[in-house]
## 1
Amino acid sequence: QVQLVESGGGLVQPGGSLKLSCRSSGIMSSIYNMGWYRQAPGKDREWVAVIGTGNLIKYTDSVKGRFTISRDNRKNTVSLQMNSLQREDTAIYYCCAYLPKTDNYIWGQGTQVTVSS
């Protein structure tokens, strides 16, 4: 019943933009820390951006100034606006919800982002 579903991935040229969205169901999303992770071919999954329950935000260095994470608890969504995309951003992007009280992680199925000319 608990699900995170990502959407918005696709093919974009270098320098372009995409907006990813993650919709949760079966949880009270307002009490979860939310984040975006990505995994490129042959590489480990890495964190991209996180937004806490109090809207405190952190980004990994490689996306600072280009990506913006936001959440809308009314809609049970978390978004990732990605600008100035680079080939190095190509990866499967995953949404994650984390509940500190129970140290519980919930993962979405991922959405593919491909940056190529």
Note: The two ends are 39 Å apart (CA to CA).
## 2
Amino acid sequence: QVQLVESGGGLVQPGGSLRLACAASGFPFSMYDMSWYYKAPGKERELVAAISPGGGSTNYRDSVKGRFTITRDNAKNTVYLQMSRLSPEDTAMYYCRADYRSPVGVRTNYWGQGTQVTVSS
């Protein structure tokens, strides 16, 4: 059974930090690209950051560059999102996603249930 379980969300003051974690099970984690998305009320779900299977390649949306860091621990089947200098605009539900494309082009993806991040004083 595939599971992606996010944790680490919560209420934080502007300027603060949070570390999200996404624990994966039920699929070969080290073969999958992993990413974090967020969805704010009334908006579409958007990519925040992504990391390659081996962790050697990452990319970020412009608004979080220099503030957020995505990492992964393939031994623990976990991907992390370290968030710093948080602002109210970062308030959203954060989702973990796993993606795989087979050698013949078949795509598979899984989503977690999300963890809420609220930045407010």
Note: The CA atoms of residues 50 and 84 lie 17 Å apart.
